Amino acid sequence: MDTQYEGGNKGDPVQITEDEAAVYDRQIRLWGLEAQQRMRNATILVIRLRGTATEAIKNIVLAGIGKLVIYDSEEVKEEDLGAGFFFRDEDVGKQRVDAAKARIEALNPLVTVQALRHPTLLEQVSLEALIMSVDLVCVTDWDREAMIKINDICRQFGKPFYAGGTFGLLGYVFCDLLKHDYISPDRSAPKEAPKNVKATASYSRLSMALQHRWTGLTKRQTKELNPAVVHIILALWEYQHKHEGKLPDDVDAVSELGQIANSILATSDVNRQVLTSVPLDLIDTMSTSAAHEFSPTCAVVGGILAQDILKALAAREAPIANFFTFDGNTGGGSVCKMNM
Questions:
Q1: 3-class state of residue 27 by DSSP
Q2: What CATH number does residue 315 fall under?
Q3: Is the pLDDT confidence value at 2 over 70?
Q4: Rounded Cα–Cα distance for residues 267 and 136 (Å)
Q5: Confidence band, pLDDT 50/70/90 cuts, at residue 25
Q6: Domain that holds residue 92
Q7: Which residues form the THIF-type NAD/FAD binding fold domain (predicted)?
Q8: Is 22 exposed, middle or buried (0-12, 13-18, 19+ CB in 10 A)?
Q9: Which stretches of 43-178 are assigned E, i.e. beta strand?
């Protein structure tokens, strides 16, 4: 097991071989050889292997990225077996990355997989070196402060950043793609002459996105963004911060979680015709279920996360801008543009 990242000069871009072109034929026809080439040359770092990461890794590895670096310093627990399909009963007690590596490699032998688990890798200097060595960073199911720290380092070195995770039946994906150029279909062009146009989107870092205000949105616009789910996720991050990383796990948390959620709501200027307080049933549910993973929620959120990472790498179509939430109670998702 490596304790250090195998860094070094990435060198010239690797060209897709005939064998690889045959494996990825369907995708190449979908988004073009150039986009597949970009994915083939990408090194992606995924931090923390829980259910969301498991699903996201499956999709990006099958799509044909060049190298995947996985980091997790924890051991497999019994509760990981439900949503983490890289783990088996006999893996309980083993390091997560050790248990997952061979199964990830089996998905697509064309992708190089490196597993890292040494806790010192997350110390400032080591973390900076690690982030500098990759093309894109994805953090899953982690606390707000750690995500902000990693996002800020990604900003420092010009690396795109993704975060995703689930709380029971709820989930989220956030991305900071800095200044992102992509090709988008020109929907104003006549049908007989479809055209693509170049577009650019400027993203904001997570610490800035969290200062977002909902001022000026109509009742309908606000409803479409599902503000109750956004605010309960923000409240769960704050609860986690106050309780040293622990999420609520029983009814005793209802009162505190409700106070946090409604305090955040009071300052964010949401249209009061839509939402005057975060629904009590949502607070009740999150108080007992936020700490638990549900496989279907992880599948949806991890799938969206992977799809968006591939979009960003391929530079085809607009990625999420910039905070996606999923509500497993209704099966619906929405994208809220937070401070960008």
A1: helix
A2: 3.40.50.720
A3: no
A4: 33
A5: low
A6: 18-181+295-336
A7: 24-337
A8: exposed
A9: 43-47, 67-71, 112-116, 136-140, 161-167, 170-176
